[in-house]
Amino acid sequence: MHKFDLKGKKVLITGAGTGIGRAVAIEFAKLGADIVVNYNASRETAEEVVNEIHKLGSQAISVQADVTQEEQAKRLVEEAAKFGNGEINILVNNAGTLVQRCKIDEMDLSLWNKVMDVNLTTAFLVTKHVIPYMKKQNSGRIINLSSLAAHDGGGPGAIPYATSKAAVQAFTKGLAKELAPYNVLVNCLAPGLITTRFHDQYNTPENRAKTCQNIPLKREGSPEEVAGAAVLLSTEYGSYITGETIEVNGGVLMD
């Protein structure tokens, strides 16, 4: 078996209907993994991902769940375990968004909490309910999605988003130590400017072009390039990596 092989692995990816989550699902399927495609509102695109995975010869299902809600997160994990015949080998906590740009002195508590819930609480809730399966297996991989914003505080009006993503990195480090005795590796990806619907919604073409001038590679990254890092962390080539954050940003931050 090649070390980049994921044949037979059962994977749960939150927010997998679009963007980076979608790219990770497709790349994993190309390597033989079977995928649970979680979505909240993007049903049509999630079904497209499932169909694409089937064409690649892997199995997939889509499961709707708002993973900011514990009962729905628990149900999602239970359905994923059923799909995997009792196993969940890889979890990718990809669900998250900026929600909206807002200065701190103009922000109410409900917006602050919403940003924390969608970016941080989602990872906690899904991970909490996946852990018993991985402990029973005595193996597993968990990949959390952070952001370049965790290092630089984010752009205008994005402080809560940046804060939540920095917390994801701390969560990753602590969890890596907590789960190491069970052979569960926990790592993080921190994308920079990636060509996704996220930046279509929360950025402008002018600002994106200006940002690219400060990136050593002088371009935006693709979702597939983030997915490549996820492949590394999920296969045998990543078997001695845990508690780490891989920066996928074209060199704009060299940590």
From TrEMBL:
<dbReference type="GO" id="GO:0016491">
    <property type="term" value="F:oxidoreductase activity"/>
</dbReference>
<dbReference type="InterPro" id="IPR002347">
    <property type="entry name" value="SDR_fam"/>
</dbReference>
<keyword id="KW-0560">Oxidoreductase</keyword>
<protein>
    <submittedName>
        <fullName>3-oxoacyl-[acyl-carrier protein] reductase</fullName>
    </submittedName>
</protein>
<dbReference type="InterPro" id="IPR020904">
    <property type="entry name" value="Sc_DH/Rdtase_CS"/>
</dbReference>
<dbReference type="InterPro" id="IPR036291">
    <property type="entry name" value="NAD(P)-bd_dom_sf"/>
</dbReference>
<comment type="similarity">
    <text>Belongs to the short-chain dehydrogenases/reductases (SDR) family.</text>
</comment>
<dbReference type="GO" id="GO:0008206">
    <property type="term" value="P:bile acid metabolic process"/>
</dbReference>
<keyword id="KW-0753">Steroid metabolism</keyword>
<dbReference type="Pfam" id="PF13561">
    <property type="entry name" value="adh_short_C2"/>
</dbReference>
<keyword id="KW-0443">Lipid metabolism</keyword>
<dbReference type="InterPro" id="IPR050259">
    <property type="entry name" value="SDR"/>
</dbReference>
